[in-house]
Amino acid sequence: MELAVLTITAIGIFLFSISYIKFAYEGFRHHFVTGLLALIPVINLIALPTLWDRTRSMLVVGLVGLIAAIIAWFAGADKAFEAVRTDRNTPIAATQTIPGNAGISTIITNEKQNGSAETFLSLLPGKALYRLDFESASPNQIRSFAGRIVRITSNDHTVTDGRIQNFTQSSVFIEQPGDGNIAYELMLSNIKSIDVMVKRAAR
Question: pTM to 2 decimals?
Fold first, then answer.
């Protein structure tokens, strides 16, 4: 029953949307101003007499779809939708990051005392299997770290963290978290020191 009312609601909204788009499209075909009026709810009733002959069949279908969607919504689709959304948003486990030494982060899993979550968490190891840390390396080795996460200190003591994207003859491009595909260029001759992220066994 829940699936049926959700399906009817979705189909009804889809049909109404198609009719709305068709109405606006015919409005712009008739005249630019008519098209603008057709886009605005309530005000678009002004354009209805002009566009009725072109759009009446689709408008009737859209109106039927809207009525069906409203009826299905109040028949239980709203409760079904809320139940699905609540189920998807229910966390299985919460994690907390605690800063450690030298940039190390320890991940602690907090168990939820309920059915499947408790069963799932019982399969997890009691402690972290490994930790991430930065290890010093020679700036001359930087070309061997393509694709790795590094921490670069420039001669002016500016620190840049990120993933090495690519190189040119005299520079390196670093992609930083949150910057999408944007990479920052650093001159190789300006690099004072470099640290590379490595994975170590947990203590």
Answer: 0.38
